[in-house]
User: Fold these one by one.
Assistant:
Number 1:
Amino acid sequence: MIGAIARKLFGSSNERRIKSYLPRVAQINALEKELEALSDEELRARTDAFKKQVADGAALDDVLVPAFATCREAAKRTLGQRHFDVQLMGGMILHEGRIAEMKTGEGKTLVATLAVYLNALAGRGVHVVTVNDYLAKRDAEWMGQIYNFLGLRVGVIVHGLTDEQRKQAYDADVTYGTNNELGFDYLRDNMKERLEHMVQRGHIFAIVDEVDSILIDEARTPLIISGGLDDRSDFYNTIDTFIPRLEKSDYEVDEKQRTVTLTEAGMEKMEQMLRGDNLLKGDHLYDVENVSTVHHVNQALRAHKLFQRDKDYIVRNGEVVIIDEFTGRMMPGRRYSEGLHQALEAKEHQPIQPENQTLASITFQNYFRMYEKLAGMTGTAMTEADEFIDIYNLEVIEVPTNMPMVRLDDDDEVYRTAAEKYRAILALIDQCKERGQPVLVGTTSIEKSEQLAEMLRKRGWEQHDFSDPNAFSALYSGDDGASKARVFAILNARYHEQEAYIIGQAGVPGAITIATNMAGRGTDIQLGGNADAIRGPRRSARRWRGSRKRRSRPGDFTCSAPSGTKAGASITSCAAAPAGKAIPAIPSSSSLSKTTSCASSGRTSSIPCCSGLASRRTRQSSTRGSTRRLRRLSRKLRPATSTSARACSSTTT
């Protein structure tokens, strides 16, 4: 009771922390006019001046205000995006080594540039960690324009680089990379025999994007480097032939523990089959002489009964490639240990690679705790705030939105049968298509995404042919043309080469995209589409393709701008327009850093676009009061521009 009264009078600890940043935000804003008058060369020269100050003993906090102001001005000149006041606060939180929780679409990628630029002035290297290679390359090219303009070097670590290329990337002022690549580089460095052969130069400061996914969900995931053993491919193939002969009563499956064990009847049957092929030593399967054989039998059982093709792995070019359970992406070059990968290869009748032994291993939790300063950003961190404090000593601060939250997170819909659920999804897709509304449908596996695609084909839909450069021309012809083109795209591990193209066009009015959780965390889908996305850096990322207008009906969700809207105008959300009114386009000058993102709002797949299939993760009720107070605080920070449009998202399970 007393605590509630104190929070009402003085605000929550989170609100007090946010207010403490306001004086420095005001100081940064005061420098804006002065920096606008500088030439590009004069603005770039400020970086050398800051570096000299830091080298002479000045603390980074001493140059925070002018450095943030410089970075914001560089962003305006290179990207046409201006950091909002709340984004300046987010940058300060990251610089302090804390976690900034920012809502989906609030521009976390741009926020990171502030803390990255400031800490890169020390010349010791800054690592920006993302969840996949696509985001690492995208952010390095996109945000790299700011750093290059200010005289900093940018490197990116992705799969397939040589040691020399990796060393050059780590020697840069700013290095983008995935958590997997950084962890494996550390393991490989520890196996090097000479210091000069190591590629990493230290672990000073890291900003982890989607920090709850990497530091909590995957915290105990081990990274393992293995070495080859003797080739036993014939033995794997022989054991694999025994598994299909077993009946359900011969084994027990524990889905939760991911284990399979033989029953008494199963052991007797397995002993008979092994004895028939002279593979059983002694009288019983579990005699000490048969330890290796039991291990192979158990791994073959797991491969057949626990691991599903197109969900846990994919067969591609004669190889079994693992699919990341958190991102839905393929992980080429990664293999399961202890003979499991060989058992999968035998199951799929693919060439069996030699078995491996563990040479080096580390978990993400232990790796990231080596950094002198660690920070993170995500849209969902408050629910794991206690874990972040206990494990990493990271405080979570919730940053208010720049504008009042207008997205509608509808309740889940639960159906009695899968058939009823799919009928509802198909009906909703048809309705949205008639309205010219882009739809992103989220699925949990490749198998389900293609199952839904097959249902659409039976209803007269066609899949996009990506070999055709004009695949989306019908959608760009306007709402009338879009409603007639019954085409859709699939984004899963089978089509990962076309990912940038599919994501670039997923926001086109009338576009239908079926995706796995590859379209989850960090995926930025621009409403209206982004035709320039496949031709180079995202210089036209927030642009409508021509003017569009359609009559709005009560309750309609439209993705249209009124006639006469200029091509450079920004549309910040797919919105429900009031009856008989068109949605106003927000001028570019007032929404330079507002993004419309389809990033996941939780560890489960969530699609905050116009419509889609998702499962919504609810926030703990204890944070709701604080959230309302933060919204009131955000109104004091937002610019005068406002809109009556209401963003929408549909969730169905």
Number 2:
Amino acid sequence: MKSKLILTAALVCVTLFVPLSLFGQSRDFEMNGTTLVKYNGNAANVTIPEGVTAIGESAFATNYGIVSVTIPSSVISIGEYAFRSCTSLASIAIPSSVTSIGDYAFSNCSSLTNITVNNQNNTYSSINGILFNKNRTVIITYPAGKRESSYTIPEGVISIGNGSFVGCNSLTSTTISSSVTSIGEWAFSDCGSLTSITIPLSVTTIGNYAFAGCTSLTNITVNNQNSVYSSAGGILFNKDRTVLIQYPAGKQESNYTIPSSVTSIGDSAFAYCISLTTVTIPSSVTSIGDRAFTYCINLRSVTIPSSITAIGVSAFEGCRSLTGVTIPSSVTSIGVSAFEGCSSLTSVIIPSSVTYIGVSAFADCSSLTSITIPSSVTVIGRSAFGNTAWLNNQPDGLIYAGKVLYTYKGTMPANTVINNIRVDTIGIASNSFNGRSSLTSIIIPLNVKVIGDGAFSECRSLTSVTIPSSVTSIGNRAFDNCRSLTSITIPASVTAIGNYAFASCESLTSITIPSSVISIGEGAFIFCNSLTSISIPSSITSIGVGTFAYCSKLTSVNIPSSVISIGEGAFGGCNSLTSITIPSSVTSIGKHAFGICSSLTSVTIPSSVTTIGNYAFVGCTSLTNITVDNQNPVYSSAGGILFNKDRTVLIQYPAGKQESNYTIPSTVTSIGGAAFGSCNSLTTITIPSSVTSIGDEAFFECSGLRSITIPSSVTSIGVSAFEGCSNLIAVTISRRTTIGRDAFPDTARITYSD
């Protein structure tokens, strides 16, 4: 089994995949080592294979057909959201081996009535089908499918966990015992039948969204002696009533005036309050939280006071009756989806104080015909005005929102050259030309300061771009997959290059990064297959995750002495890179940083490096020598082999070494992950009795290895330790040794030494 670099939406990482066929159920189980990453099957009754140690985040999420899941005793952890919204799942049994269950693991499982925990489990327990920690001080999950209408949280429970009652629609009342001190995030969210709740004096922490979406909730009462929280008129506040935390969504009043003591409206404070038509916000309020009024579907008007500086994410999303809104001149930013779906909104005037309009801020405001956008706005997010009457009424061609080039509307002719952008343009909006495969050339005029996220992404015919000296920022994925772009000059005004900004620009042969740039994002130049050299300016202190990964023709890189860290997979897959000089400023080399650099012949680790991530040099099949400065306090080398300082851990035997035999020094107690990976020249390896552990994939694809004797001192052998050793036919090992999944090839004959 080979290690291989995998590009994900967020970052570049190296993942070790176990062949799916080894788990016996076709490709139903997507594995990463012994972690079940995703279940892809459609069986009603699922048995997780023995040997799986972890059920990953969201592994079964939204699988609506699963009725039962059998968890084997090899599983020790269940990730966050692992079974979220498995709406047919009726019951689940937690074996004694499980020591970790992530938040929301069983949230929104609307048919789940029973969770049982093996009595021998040392971490968890259950009572009447409800999941607790072992000593029952934390309630973790109350199954959403239980049909009881009321529940009293037992005395002794200190904490109501995150999402513990989410979606429990049968509950009309819950009694919180006087022992409870904290109520987690989303704890009672979407309990659609819950009508009232009393907070005892013991509670000192209530997480965000704890009662969000409780559409029948009319009253929240707080014990008068509570030192942190209070209530008035059934509404939840902090003690001094400066923060309005939750207005119950089931209240029937149509009008509400927020008290003048309030300075902050909490996240989701009024969400789904469908009876409200008018809310008066006093001038004392300085912040409106994310989703504060989301889906108040009958809210008709709102005046935002001049004390507000920012309108939060989805603050008024889905307020479909909202016909007017006054945005004061104090506001500087309008958040993502702030007014999305306000389908009755007809006009909006954005004041000159605003500089930022977020993604989908006014999207689906289908009646919005008039928008006044000032010249102060420099950043407009993707689809900020999508599906509005204003946009639909615009003629085809270049569309401007204030002084920002918002988009190109209509069909773009073949071989389009754009050289007529208005000279007063100060920004290129996010995704403005995304996917315009007919665009071949564009001249961005002077005065433009920002090139937005994805502005030219997927413009596959774009060969020429002129970026003026006024630009200071190039957004995430700004030129992603511009496959015909051969060269680009980044002006000295630019200070930041976004994540994946030039990813997959496979024709780009050269690029000059000016010294003004202080930040280069993750994967900024990943898959730039024609890039042959790169000079990193001394203004850069960190080379990010996957920044130059898979630049397959890159032969040389100048890393300046300003660089402190080389990130995960930073140069992974640069298989033409023959040498690299790591300056003495570097303290950290991330995992897989130089993985699969198949032409790299030698590496010198300076004394400054104190951290080298796993598999940093895995798959470097030409690498013959790793030298560590003698003054390094953490690492050392001997015979070109990388060890920790006292040589108790063998970290990397260079895969390009030509020796056929190697005896591991008797100081070594641990052989690291992939330490001998792809060492095809080795035919004999002697493991001394000092060794107690052999890491995952330690000898993978050592194709010359025919036999191995593992001393009885070895207590554990990692996953896939000798996988891919195609000529390995004889293994001698102790019966007492714990052997990881797929440790040996099927062709190997096992002989026990005891």
